[in-house]
Amino acid sequence: MLRHEFRPGQAVAGLTMLALAGGYAAEAAGAWKVPWAFFLPVLLGGLFLSATATWTAYRVRRRRDARKASAENTEAPASTSGSHAIK
Fold first, then answer.
1. What is the pLDDT of residues 65-82, one digit of tens each?
2. Nearest one of 15, 22, 12, 21 to 49, comparing CA atoms
């Protein structure tokens, strides 16, 4: 059993940061010549993908929880207000 839930947004953000760190290290070592403007779109794109993954995971988790709660509640809801209230 997992000790914590998987968070894909944090995983994508972490991989983006690792890629940027590797790019900067390669640039500093002289192994890779790339203009500094290359890193800005990589950073922004990675953060956008991270936010998208976080939002998608939230929606999936919320839908799964609602479906589970709906399956557990098999009796008719009791109405306490409105025109259908029992008098």
1. 888 877 777 665 555 665
2. 12
Q: Whose structure tokens read 């794109």?
A: 45
* Tokens found for residue 20: 């940027």
How far apart are alpha carbons 41 and 49 in whole angstroms? Answer: 12
Using alpha carbons only, how large is the chain's radius of gyration in Å? 24
Note whether 27 and 38 are within 8 A (CB).
no
List, in order, residues 6 or more apart from 43 with CB less than 8 Å away.
16, 20
Those residues whose C-beta lies under 8 Å from the C-beta of residue 74, and which sit 6 or more positions away, are none
